[in-house]
Amino acid sequence: MPSPDPDDWSVRVRDALGRYDEPLLRAVAGRLVKPRTNQPADDLLDKAVGILTNPPQIDRRIKELPPSSRKLLALIGLSRQPRWAVGHLLTLLASLGHAEGFAPVRAALDAGLLYPELPPDGPPLDDFDRWLGAGGTLAAVAFAHPAVAARARGEDLELPDLASGGREPPGSPARQADGLEWPLRLAAVWQQVGGSAVRLTQANTLFKRDQTRLQGDEVLAALPADHLAPSPDLGILALFWAKAAGLLAEADGELRPGSFPSAWDAGLTPAVSQLFAALPHVEAWDPLAGYAPVESGLSGFPTAGLLSLLLLASGGRQPPDGKPNQGADAPRSPGWTDPAAVAGWLWENHPSWAGGSPAATTDRGAGWVEGFLLGVAYPLRLVEAVPAADGWAVRLSDLGRHLLAGGPEPVVPPLPPQTLLVQPNAEVLAFRQGLTPGLVAALSRFARWKGIGPACTLELTPEQTYRGLESGLTLPMVLQTLARHSTRPVPPGVADLLQRWANKRDRITVFASAVLVEFPTPADLDAALARGVVSVKLTDRVGMTADGAEPGLSQLRLIGNRDYEAKPQRCVSVGDDGVTLTVDAAQADLLLDAEIGRYAEPLPPETPGVRRFRLTPATVRRAADAGLSFADIDGWFVDRTGGPLPPAGRLFLFGGKVPPPTAARRLVVRFSSAELADGVVQWPETRRLIADRLGPTAVVVEEEAFDPLRRVLAEVGVTLEEI
Amino acid sequence: MHTTARLAAKLHRRVCLVLTEDAVLAEELLARKRLAAEVAGRLSDQVLLLRPGRVEAVLDELRKMGHTPQVVGGK
């Protein structure tokens, strides 16, 4: 949901104009600013944006537009929604009798009073027709500055006055809803999505699982307590409406809860205005069919819904100066209208109504209009109703007249601040007469909606309390909200329960991206704790601040800076003995401490700041017993030392797993030269007496072969002497 | 060392870790196979270092176990 803040929209306009190429910018800004001298493009852009907050100049520019373009801006202004799909705008204009196609939109774009939404990385825009051709009328979205659209609201849309029932309720008193039904339902669906995210298909439709969940949910699927007409799939409408209103945010194909809009805290009128403005962005719901995903083409809901309300407003529109008229000439309450008359007009004038609308042909769409006006607009307090001969007659309520006919903002009577009753079973009764959208939003963060009726029921649960605390609430804030709005004190048992759930949350803390501070010695960490540099001691040398944020660096001298997500570096050297490991403190990362303890035991420090470990048969065996394979251990040594597991380590690892070595008594015969030894090994007469060759000049013989060898060698003149 | 001297220190940034109330709870978490697979190391009795980028998976698993972990520093 776009922000209503005019400054935000001025930034958007600046961004859009900044994306025009210079000739187009000069042409558009020239029409808007009408400069007398040739000015730099940047100056033109500044002036074009500045004009948008200058009402007299806006009025002059709007007057220069053709009637169809003025009506286009009026429709945007009356809808309170600055962003519209171009296809919907063309549908609305065609319904008003302007079937000129893109021309009215083009004229407003040329005049600098309407702007295209452009893809972020696209090329500069040089032609509006090309933009529309690339996006297509279905996908292309245009927007107007709210200040401009508001000035255009007084334009006569030339809609007929369909009221037929007079200006006073015929007999029975008018029924008016409290306007809370949709805020409550949107809050409930916001909670549902918080419990389990809703996934969307690539076509932006629901998966069957979520569709069934929303259709079957006992809170969302229930009819409103004050319902005048049945409406299907209210849970799905609530979901897409919540998305359009910004309560739900879409990311990576999933809907997740966002923040409640600030308008909810401002009271009923701003909250309802905000929800009304979001309605044109609800496409996948229909008052007759319920969930109606639009695979291709445009949904009739946004345009037919707005036109239905505008037809009710046609009897009492605001004066053309755009200011709400609160004097003697203030617009009177429009007369009562039969929804069938509204349907009849739509049937004749809405371009896709008769052909494409799912409305039943037998009643010419009367059921659709009743479903919208009585099922959507009435609970939103935009219309009020009285019983009529064959159903209900409707007209705009005070709030509806304020939004659509220039009426004054309704005065909301002061509400009783105490409207909750916290029961000992952790259920909370919320009486609607004291509820506000702001309180609905506040309660939704920590209590689960269990029933929405004349008196609503909420339930305090561990899950919802946990979500509330995770969203930034504290236990005192929760208790304060309950206490401030309760008619009786919060039962001590409930307060204890909330305290227990909050304590449970404190048992495990997950730091998603903490900064840990490693000190050379435990004494340094103690000093840092004493000075308040860090407040949590994680190990004897590692600490962090309470929230895991970076500590103040004024008391630290940085000797290293490691990114936990970076690839591990070589930071260990192996001594000549093959078992002593020395850590390079500057290069070592945090995982090293956790890893090296698996293979080696720490040695007492000899030099301050230098940490050494030693491989022992026990430590290596312990690593193997813990499930680490030779490949794991060898791989760690390659990563951390640059070489494989040292032979001593292999001895520790494999010593007990290979065939046992053997020992035997044998005689070593050492010759005076290698050539002589070679001859002995080669000559078959002596070779058969040699057990093994030990080296260039030495061989091994069995004890019993010694005498035969001496005899054979004697035959060739070699005397073998025994030492 | 003079009390106002700057302390030599090394910073480890972007660390994902789980801090438990006591060592028994850390043992309980490590006994959970799916959770143990996401633990890169145990810094101390109560501190488990997580594999980078696996915080969401750890949170899901903790919640499946019925825990309500406090999350600090974004999700």
Helix content of chain A: 40-55%
Whole-number mean pLDDT of chain B: 89
Weakly predicted, low-confidence segments of chain A: 318-329
What's the shape of chain B?
elongated
- Unreliable stretches of chain B (pLDDT < 50, length at least 5) are none
Q: Which protein chains are joined by the largest interface, and how many residues does each one contribute?
A: A-B, 56 and 43 residues
Distance between the termini of chain A: 102 Å
**On the 0-100 scale, what is the average pLDDT of chain A?**
89
Q: What structural class do the secondary elements of chain B suggest?
A: alpha+beta
Largest sheet of chain B: 3 strands, antiparallel
Oligomer: heterodimer
Order of strands, widest sheet of chain B: 1-3-2
Please work out how many helical segments of chain A DSSP would assign: 30
Task: State the secondary-structure class of chain A.
Answer: alpha+beta
Shape of chain A: elongated
What's the helical proportion of residues of chain B? 25-40%
What's the count of strands of chain A? 25
Strand content of chain B: 35-45%
Task: Describe the model.
The complex is a heterodimer of chains A (723) and B (75). Chain A has 723 residues and is of the alpha+beta class. Helix content of chain A is 41%, strand content 14%. Chain A folds into six domains: 146 residues, no CATH class; 217 residues, no CATH class; 87 residues, no CATH class; 39 residues, no CATH class; 83 residues, no CATH class; 49 residues. In chain A, a hairpin with a 2-residue loop joins strand 5 and strand 6. Chain A is elongated and about 140 Å long. Chain B is 31% helix and 36% strand. A three-stranded antiparallel sheet of chain B has the order 1-3-2. Chain B has a domain of 48 residues. The radius of gyration of chain B is 15 Å and the shape is elongated. The interface between A and B is large, with 56 and 43 residues.
